[in-house]
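Re-run with default settings, no changes from the original entry. Doing this only to confirm the output is reproducible before filing.
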Amino acid sequence: MSAPERQAAASSTETGGLSRKGLSAGTVGLIGAIVIGISCIAPAYTLTAALGPTVSEVGVQVPAIMLVGFIPMLLVAFGYRELNNRMPDSGTSFTWATRAFGPWIGWMAGWGLIAATILVLSNLAGIAVEFLFLLIAQITNIPAIADLAFEPLINVAVCLLFMLGATLVSYRDMQTTQKLQYFLVGFQVLVLVFFAGAAIVATLNGSAFDATPFDISWFDPFAVSSVTALVAGLSLSIFIFWGWDVTLTMNEETRDPDKTPGRAATLTVIIIVALYLLLAVSLIMYAGVGTGEYGLGNEDIQSNVFFALSGPILGPLAFLVSLAVLTSSASSLQSTFVSPARTLLAMGHYGALPPALAKVHPRFFTPGVATIVSAVVASAFYAVMRFISENVLWDTITALGMMICFYYGLTAFACVWYFRRQWFDSARNVFFTLLFPLVGGVILAVLFVRTLIDSMDPGYGSGSNIAGVGLVFVLGVTVILVGVVIMIWQAVRSPAFFRGETLSLDAPPSLRRARRENTPHKEDA
């Protein structure tokens, strides 16, 4: 960045406007953003764990539940796209909620994103370790090797190596990330499509375990037996679709930053739902929803459906599925670093967190300090929790649902409120700046409250509790309260952001005047 650009950026920040942070502009195209978005969602890893439990709730209506769960994610994605069109900034939820509601709510929206993504990093690393040893056991035909993943010392050591590798790639330029993800995501998707195709062929030629003829009614959400099942479907969407918003956090590094990230987010969600539906339909056709040896309703295989069915469907090529799930978790581990690192960068840049986080590597143009901080926190959390209590570790991951609903919902409402003066400027605005994000935000708010209430039950999650209150509830509320404490500490230590001096509420006066005068105007990013 030249001296005049640095001066302009500094001036913009001081007056409460948006400003660039020194990231490498124009390095990510539409395809690259979509690939990184798919990687962050980790379809192979996510669906192998989610498909079985969903079948146990709704049977063959899994495709319908996926479509229902897809709706709030798509509605929120539209809101994200509108905000990005107006304010392309790497802070995304943090920046947008600040511009809409002020610094305090904006800070908490940023905290929700950071807490969710950093905590899930540790989970992804742990899953990668398990599938690494599972793959080795499968290839060598020595089942005992898989058990090594559950030895705490071995597990943590290998987990930290995965974390180190992902950190090194994320620390380098975005081109390195894109090149790696093209290979990892491409392999993962090809294997999943091959797996689904093989299941369909086996069903058609009569060699399926429990052949179930395809029925279009599987896609009918009104055929779902109960409201409870529908709620379960919406909750499922939080986990199986979460991660698409990584495409927005790269907006300062994409070509055509006011349009490409939003398009990438929408296309990513659509591609993922199509892939999920293909896999769900093909495996229901092959294995059915019963409780037999390979039935999707069998509790013994529900934690890893793909691994259980890969042998019967693919025979000697079964290892490809395990490799795809390993690739899925490992690639997601690396791409997930993008979101917290860039949100921390933005919060440091605008004075919402210590300025050291705003440092950009002079050679790679990446948020180097923020990336390292994310890695250290995630690694320390996993290592400590893995030795203290595995129940606490997994209950914290379960509590992530609350954090995701929290910051997604806040961002959806930020879209509605930010564009309140333009709701009825056109029919398009009525849908994309009012109705769609409002409905999506309300759904997520209801899920947030529902999860809070349900998680108070001592039997929720692992079944652990403190003074009769479910551990998942305690952990979720604790994560939010830790954010409140850090926010207050930062406000006392460095109050400029909280006074609206570095990132102002709503739009600057020049933009409001331009709107009143009906003249075209584009806010500088």
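The longest helix spans residues 103-140. The longest strand covers residues 465-466.
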